[in-house]
Predict the structure.
Amino acid sequence: MKILFLLVSFFALNAFIADAPTISKKERKSAAKFLKESEDETLKTIGKLSEAQLKFKPAPDKWSVEECMMHIAASEKMLWGMTEGVINAPANPEKRAEIKMTDEEVMKNIEDRTTKRKTLPPLEPQNTGFKSLGEAVASFTENREKLISYTKDTKADLRNHVNTLPSGSFDCYQMILFIGAHTIRHVKQMEEVMADPGFPKN
């Protein structure tokens, strides 16, 4: 009986260790807060604008605020779908050596619009499939709430699942931060549109 008890205890302990989360309570809280704040900032920015203001384009090759929102919503789905695929694949901790940025640097660098980047064709506003601002906002808020809930509750080994993008390698916790920072990046783009001299007064 003593041997049986020890064996049961051993396997139970190992199961507990295997299922233990690899991100701390502080990391969960920080990421969830960042995601919520960037969501709130987005909705606050577009919520006060008229139809004319939403559709205003500083130049033919520039995006309107509405188009920025469509890009944000489409990117939310794409980036999380990519991240979820990496989480569900076997862990690849050997790739952690390829990560060059801290969590703070991920947020800072992705938000920064000093260097402009051309997006992938499926994420260009006209290719997102959204027929209206309302559709884009509904998709964004639905997917963002799911991501916040996931961040708070997941037991996945986010740090040892590494994703490689053209901009660098990121573990999946950093990818969650990447998603929030990408949102802020395009809120800043909205603000650039709103600061244009030709932006409608109302």
Notes: DSSP finds seven helices and two strands in the chain. The domain at 23-194 is CATH 1.20.120.450 (Four Helix Bundle (Hemerythrin (Met), subunit A)). The first strand starts at residue 162 and ends at 165.
